[in-house]
Amino acid sequence: MTALIDAARRGRAWARRRGSAIGSVVAVRAQEPVVVLTYDDGPDPAGTRQVLDALAEHDATATFFVLLTRVRKHPTVLAEIIAAGHEVALHGPDHRRPTEFGRTEALRRLLDSRAELEDRAGRTVRWYRPPYGAQTLGTWRATRQAGLTPVMWGGTTWDWRDVGQDERVAKAMATVVGPGSILLAHDGFAGADDGAPDGGPTHDLDRYELTDRVLDGLAERGLRGVSLGGALAAGARPDLAAWFSR
């Protein structure tokens, strides 16, 4: 905890010297009753399509943070995400922690992977979510130097945990505190081939049902799901906070 506090203090001091805000997007200050839906670790032929079907049923949009290891294997699924009107963002060239690399190498990886994803998607990529939310001041600076904005989360579906679906839905409802929350979910699970050191989760998950039930729960509270870009286009403003880990 002391290390995190010290890192945050260094970040604020650096920001004051630069005369600019430092931080990652952790929520948005929304003018509309929206929750930002985000999905990590895809594209995945089964999981992504389940999520896309559920989003279409609810007329919702989402931001998909994709891995290039998966994009190269499943380019048609990436195309389906885009054709359905969703936003594509970068989760990384693979699922290794960016904090394993020095700033120069972290920057090179981000520049190369952003350029490749933009070429494959045919559009500008604005957002980056580091795997595991792992970020230091150095990798944050590399992210911004690469022309990307780091995006974290507040709410979570706990979908990477091997728990019951009821518990996942309850967790999502408990951690979405209101309009402007960013909800973390996954349309796939990174594995050993993607550089996940533990091989990634292996439990079965009905992603259609989970997305459908979460969106039903949000609707009962008068909230709807949108992509990050969609929320900002509707007048929301990014809410920044220091987010540093080891």
In short, what is this structure?
Pfam families: Polysacc_deac_1 (PF01522). It contains nine helices and ten strands. It is α/β, with parallel strands linked by helices and 246 residues long.
Descriptive report:
It is a single chain. Strands 2, 3, 4, 7, 8 and 9 form a 6-stranded parallel beta sheet that branches. This protein has helices at 2-18, 47-57, 68-73, 75-83, 103-121, 137-145, 165-175, 207-220, 228-233; strands at residues 24-29, 34-42, 63-67, 87-92, 127-128, 149-150, 155-156, 182-186, 224-226, 237-241. It is globular and about 45 Å long. The chain is α/β, with parallel strands linked by helices. Mean pLDDT is 92; it is low at 1-20. Helix 2 packs parallel to helix 8.
What would the keywords be for this entry?
246 residues; 18% strand; 10 strands; 41% helix; single chain; globular; 6-stranded parallel β-sheet; TIM Barrel; two-stranded antiparallel ribbon; alpha/beta
Using only C-alpha atoms, the radius of gyration works out to 17 Å
Uncertain regions spanning at least 5 consecutive residues: 1-20
Number of strands: 10
The number of helical runs is 9
Give the overall shape, derived from the CA principal axes. Answer: globular
SSE arrangement, N to C? HEEHEHHEHEHEEHEHEHE
- CATH homology group: Glycoside hydrolase/deacetylase
Share of β-strand residues = 15-25%
Which fold name is given in CATH as the topology?
Answer: TIM Barrel
**Whole-number total of structural domains:** 1
The share of residues in helices is 40-55%
- Summed over residues and divided by their number, the pLDDT gives a mean of 92
Structural class, by secondary structure, is alpha/beta
- Largest sheet report: 6 strands, parallel
Query: Could you tell me how far the N terminus lies from the C terminus, measured between alpha carbons in angstroms?
Result: 10 Å
CATH class: Alpha Beta
CATH architecture: Alpha-Beta Barrel
